[in-house]
Amino acid sequence: MIVQEQVSLQAYNTFGIPATARYFSTFESIEDLGNILSDSRWKNMPLLILGGGSNILLTKDFNGLVLKNNIKGIEKTGTAGDHVYMKSGAGENWHGFVQHCIQENLAGLENLSLIPGNVGASPMQNIGAYGVEIKDTFHSLTAFHIEERKIMTFNNADCKFGYRESVFKRELKNEFVIVDVTYQLNKTPHFNTSYGAIEQELTQMGVKDLSIQAISQAVINIRSSKLPNPAEIGNAGSFFKNPEIPATQYETLKAKFPNIVAYPLPSGHVKLAAGWLIEQCGWKGFREGDAGVHAKQALVLVNYGRATGSEIYDLSSKVLASVQEKFGVALEREVNII
After folding, report:
1. Is 251 a known active-site residue?
2. Spatial CA neighbour of 3 closest among 57, 47, 61
3. Model-level pTM?
4. Residue 57: strand pairing partners
5. Which residue spans of the chain are classified as CATH 3.90.78.10?
6. Which of 15, 207, 269, 290 is the most buried if burial means most Cβ atoms within 10 Å?
């Protein structure tokens, strides 16, 4: 294994932040990972596992070992009735994996097209969009325990999925490296077009016969029109979570702000559109130096070129404070702060 020193991480995070790793290496298999972690040099050193770098904000140089997960490979591992099980290496590009499944006419992931990042992060974040979350199709994953150097398998219940949450972001944070993920997909599709502008986009596309291919393309069109391409403007997608509040608090807010955007939840709580809250506070299109709030989607913070991670973080803190002051609602950052 080749370990480099003083490596720029600018190309490894979608914000394009020029932080430096004290040590850096890649791994392409569980064996590679085990070999490098068995080296005593890293025993008491901070460790950062990088996937696609699409959900992190680097606020400083990393004084430890950064390992880039390059485990690849996609395979069908079994079938059961209408279900087909597809396994992907954690280092595969998420959108590429989704498109592979769609080409195989396997349904379940089409609403999650064009989400940036790699497959390994999908269960960690319980990524979701347009009425679908990872937990809906997740079957299992394989993970490497960093301290005990052993492989473990996690099923759906083990992952304790929540809204953009899992056990890997809470009690097991920094204890495991996800090496592959298996999804339970369907031969027969169950279309989900009721969220966002999917139905409107399908109509504009002139779609007569609904298909997973058409839904995927509609999602791609919508996301491309609303969200900045990280290759053009540094960003990590949605920076904030949509907050969930009690129905009583929602009714109080609605009386004061009749146009508030919200969605009732089965739990009886109400999910608010964080982007709407941020926009009402005047942040949409705001720019300070090279740190800004995207002009088309207030949920997205952007790096126009030379912003530091600290500047992006400070801007996010100002956004949180203003939403709290105006609406009495505490937003949470979705992006992992390093």
Report:
1. no
2. 47
3. 0.88
4. 337
5. 234-337
6. 15
179 Cα distance to chain centroid: 17
Query: Given 54, 88, 216, 238, which residue is catalytic?
Result: 238
- How far apart, in whole angstroms, are the C-alpha atoms of residue 247 and residue 269? 5
- Is 322 noted as a catalytic residue in this protein? no
Q: Is 238 part of the annotated catalytic residue set?
A: yes
What average pLDDT is seen over the chain? Answer: 94
Residues of the chain with CATH 3.30.465.10: 74-186
**Which token pair is 289?**
């130096």
Burial class (CB in 10 A: 0-12, 13-18, 19+), 127: buried
Count the alpha carbons within 13 Å of 127 in the hemisphere toward its beta carbon. Answer: 25
The one catalytic residue in 164, 166, 216, 223 is 164
CATH number, domain 234-337: 3.90.78.10
pLDDT mean values, one per 10 residues, the chain (338 residues): 93 95 96 92 91 92 96 96 97 97 96 93 91 94 94 96 90 94 96 86 92 96 89 92 95 96 90 96 97 95 96 98 97 93
CATH tag for 74-186 (out of 3.40.190.10, 3.40.50.80, 3.30.1330.60, 3.30.465.10): 3.30.465.10
Listed in order, the ranges of the chain carrying CATH 3.30.43.10 are 4-69
Enter the CATH code of domain 4-69.
Answer: 3.30.43.10
82 vs 111: CA distance, rounded Å: 19
